[in-house]
Amino acid sequence: MPICEKLLRLLERPKMVLIEGGAGVGKTRLALELLRELCTSSCMYAAPRYFDVIKLSDMLGLDASKITLYKVFDPTDFIDIITMEKVIMYDVIVVDQIEYVAAEDSTNEAWTLVLLLVSALKFLSERYGVYTVIVSGKGVFRGLGALANIVKTWCDMVIEMGKYNSHYQLTVYSPKDSTVLLKSRYLIRRGIEWLDC
């Protein structure tokens, strides 16, 4: 799926983006498309499971020499990500399936580590210009009450993806004031194949 120009223009300025939606709506595929478009020298892709990512990366023509894959086994692995010396050198950091790690260990400490990661990524994006993409299941942060609002407001832009009636829809909005910046339908068959924008 070539990302449409309108979406790319919207995503040029923000440094921290949250992509959220239900299972199978194309969140990982969109994150990889952004990685392909924005990674110029080196980037990191972190997730608890990334078997499909390797196949998708090949399909999308991503340069594997530029991407560091980091497998997250438990919430404490997030600390490793944010304490790596090289972390400020990445163009883009994608943290995919952030909810799975905390869901397997649903203690307050696990969610605290997730929030610590998100706040550290915000610091990296503002201080060092590292473009950050966080991918999460729909409504994952809802159970956290006020913390959910913190995570979203730390992001510069939110992309919601989902199935509505008989079609898939992508909505891009600013979490600061909930202004909808783009609404687009898309087709999905083993990943996003067409985006109407």
| Proportion in helices | 25-40%
CATH-derived topology: Rossmann fold
Strand order of the largest sheet: 3-2-4-5-1-6-7-8-9
The number of helical runs is 7
Please, could you describe this protein's structure?
The structure is a single chain. This protein has 197 residues and is α/β, with parallel strands linked by helices. The chain has one domain: P-loop containing nucleotide triphosphate hydrolases (Rossmann fold). The protein is 38% helix and 28% strand. The protein contains 7 helices and 9 strands. The chain has helices at 5-12, 27-38, 51-60, 77-83, 98-104, 108-128, 146-154, and strands at residues 16-21, 43-47, 67-71, 92-95, 131-137, 157-164, 167-173, 180-188, 192-195. Strands 3-2-4-5-1-6-7-8-9 form a 9-stranded mixed beta sheet, sandwiched between helices. Strand 6 (157-164) and strand 7 (167-173) form a beta hairpin. Helix 5 (98-104) packs antiparallel against helix 6.
Essential attributes:
38% helix, alpha/beta, 197 residues, Rossmann fold, nine-stranded mixed beta sheet
